[in-house]
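Dear colleague,

Following up on Tuesday's group meeting, I ran the structure prediction for the two-component complex that the binding team flagged. I've pasted the input sequences exactly as they went in, so you can double-check that nothing got truncated or mislabelled along the way. The structure tokens for the whole assembly follow below. Feel free to forward this to whoever is handling the docking comparison.

Inputs:
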Amino acid sequence: MRYLMTHKPSETTPDEKLYAEMAEFVEELTAAGILLATGGLEAGGVRVTSSGDEITVTDGPFAEAKEAVAGFALVEVRSKEEAIELTRRFRRIVGDGESVIQQVFGP
Amino acid sequence: MTDVHRTIDAIWKLQSARIIAGITRMVHDVGLAEELAQDALVSALEQWPQSGVPDNPGAWLTAVAKRRAVDRIRRARRLGDKHGELARGLERQGPGQGSDQDPEQDPEQDDLLRLMFVSCHPVLPTEARVALTLKLLGGLTTGEIARAFLVGEARIARRVAAAKRTLAEERVPFELPRGPGLAARLSSVLEVVYLIFNEGYSATSGDDLVRPGLCLEALRLGRLLARLMPEEAEVHGLVALMEIQASRSAARTGPSGEPVLLHEQNRGRWDRLLIRRGFTAMLRAREIGGTPGPYVLQAAIAVCHARARTAEDTDWARIATLYEALARLLPTPVVQLNRAVALGMAHGPEAGLALADSLAGDPALRDYHLLPSVRGDLLARLGRLDEARLEFERAASLTGNAAERAHLRRRAAEIAAPAVPGPTLGQAVREFLERGELDAGTVRSYGQTLRRLRLALGDRTPLSSLTAGHVARVFAAAWDGTAAATWNRHRSAVRSFGAWASMGHLAAGIERRAGTRTRAGCIDPAQLEALWNRPDLPLRERTLWRLLHESAAGVTAVLSLNVEDLDLDDRRARAGGSWVSWRSGTARLLPDLVAGRTRGPLFLSHRRPGQARTPAPADLCPETGRRRLSYERAEYLFKQATRHLDPAGGGYTLRRLRPRA
């Protein structure tokens, strides 16, 4: 099963220790064949909305930036519980904040 | 399962391999290490529901298991040298780090790699390697493994237990193979991983075409191995092959579970992410260079398919060339059959059919449904529709997979059946056997012969189209290596059938064989010498084979020996009314095999008999409760061990250990 884990921007300012722990975590999951893809996302971005025939393109940043996704990880695991367990470890490294886990279907 | 239990299960699956690997380095016994890790798991199951899951559950489990290991080692030390291995383990262990570690390597990763090599050790039968690897490295329970392979849980549990015992008995060291031994050991690991993948990908039995769980386990093992051994091209080749094959999982079954052939698949449903991972792995393999091995070549073929935007774009000429190279490394009939498909696509159906036809007599493909399926395809493209339909029907009757069978039947049905002149082979055989003039034994015996004819030639082949040439080819493929008596029995079945059907010529192409029993010659002395010196053979097997060779006694007599019958000083034992005597080779091994036992069967099975099958008391060891080794099992083990020596590929029978008189 594939799960997409996304997380919102964190209050904690990343320091050397966090970077090192994070690198180790990513390395471990990659080595174990679990982590398929991961990345950070720019704050803001471009918003495209459609309404009827009209398409509107707006450049960020947006007021509700805190709600936006700051990074993601795509993992391949055996169960939802495994995905939760990985997210738990991730949260312990990055500190206070929120992650969302969603199963990925397809292609 | 409650939420906490599910969480614990998930943690276990993610962490157990590392825990077991670390403990094995301390105690030098995989079975014991797993037991200690399981103890830690039990503690977690007892404590966590109340106390909550600890902050770092993996570290918690490791700490508990390590504490138990240290307790075990201290106790062993107090007990003196009996468990010397364990005591040494603690000395070598030091505080948290082994002294024999290469400082360049991450010790934890190294332990995982060691664990992989041990689980896939050639001393174990293949099935045991697969089960043990899934258990120790995948963290699967015996129940989960059993369900994945559609066998009983007890069977997997026995398989795992026997494997652990063998590893302990054979004192398989917990170390990384180096030097010339590495290639063979690595190929054993790759074989196990690919076997797991294939069992998941092309389920050989059952109703599902794919069991994704096993594919995922294999992929994870492969990716892990690629991280642990980044310098091995074949590892990356295997990973590339699996990633690309797995990328097609969704596309290869249709809405009702039927298989969709590669060239008919909707390529939009291929998983681009896995394809990209496959390409990356392939690039790594290419960067390492060297002569491409079988996995790199197979991956290169998979890459060709993955690159083609449409089926028509496929570079079949390149694929045919790659198969040719692969056939040089692995000259198996299955590879040749794939080459026939590629040739058929690259250079037209005649070219493919010529190669496929040349495989028709190969005994290894006798019951392989893909041969008639491929031939059917090529014949249909040549417009030889009647033959094609028969081939598809034959393929359908040979496959064990329900979805595949339905697909093949449909392909046969798409070609309209012509008016059949007279009865078909299937109808005639049924009529012949059921007419009530034959006794039950004859019906069974004739039935066996005729069933083979039906499978080989097709049930719906018109009887009148059968020729002596057809029959002779079936005989050559099916029974050429059998004893004359067997051959003649099948021959008389066909003669009787032919006479009944007024087709007396049917057996004309099969000569009666001389009835004198020709015993197969004994094994070449050089091969025997190599066999005696093989380090990976269990003691029981080595002793049995040497004893058979040195004593020239019958297999049954030797297996019937009891410990109390042995006269170790005079090197002889009473068996029934006669003596079995041996020489120094056996004499060296016997004391270890007896190992303090005073009575009961000399050669013991590794298993205790099941409740339902209690053997005679004389066949049971009063000390271990194990049963006497059976002729069948002993014969099987010898065949397995000598398969690579036997030019016919089947392995030698025990009788051939007897020296020529």
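The interface with chain B takes residues 30-34, 36-37, 74, 76, 78-79, 81-82, 84-86, 92, 106-107 of chain A (CB under 8 Å).

Cheers,
M.
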